[in-house]
Design goal:
Structural class: mainly alpha
Order of helices and strands: HHHHHH
Radius of gyration: 17 Å
CATH class: Mainly Alpha
Distance between the termini: 50 Å
Largest sheet: none
Number of strands: 0
Shape: elongated
Length: about 160
């Protein structure tokens, strides 16, 4: 019940925003949301790992960690989609292409690993908490490496930053 009350309004909002941007001719500007969207998976997935590690201290913590994992994974997919759009439409800086390729590859590994973790946690059958926590830590390492490469693109190469 809670899942529907959260997911349906968010999906409707995303659809309405996409239709508005497409209708108004702003489709090419959607990439501007990528820098905003990337902060949600970083915050949710790293904080969720900490909460998962503290899970035995309070009864509600494991449930909160699961929700942070699921919402953070969804946010990671949104950030990846916006990033791919940015790759197609944002102004490019040729010296940054190697970093951009690494950033994109790490982003695929990030969403893949967190999707696998989300499915693992959702099944809840013999989910082996210690192994799960270790896998989540490894996925967070990939997430932070992805974020670092994104920072390199902006702050070292000036990608997506106007020269004016």
């Amino acid at each position: 019940m809670v899942k529907r009350t959260v997911v349906i309004p968010l999906a409707a909002l995303a659809l309405a925003a996409a239709l508005w941007f497409h209708k108004e001719g702003h489709r090419h500007e959607l990439y501007l949301f990528h820098p905003m969207a990337v902060h949600f998976p970083i915050a949710l997935l790293t904080t969720g790992w900490v909460i998962c590690a503290l899970g035995r201290r309070a009864e509600w913590l494991p449930n909160a960690a699961s929700w942070m994992l699921w919402v953070g994974t969804t946010a990671a997919w949104a950030a990846l989609g916006l990033g791919l759009l940015a790759e197609r439409t944002a102004p490019h800086v040729p010296p940054a292409w190697r970093t951009l390729n690494l950033h994109e590859t790490l982003a695929y590994w990030t969403v893949g690993s967190f999707t696998a973790l989300s499915l693992w946690r959702w099944r809840r059958e013999n989910w082996r908490p210690r192994l799960f926590l270790l896998a989540w830590a490894a996925a967070c390492a990939v997430l932070l490496a992805t974020a670092y490469q994104g920072g390199e693109l902006v702050f070292t190469h000036g990608m997506g930053v106007s020269a004016e």
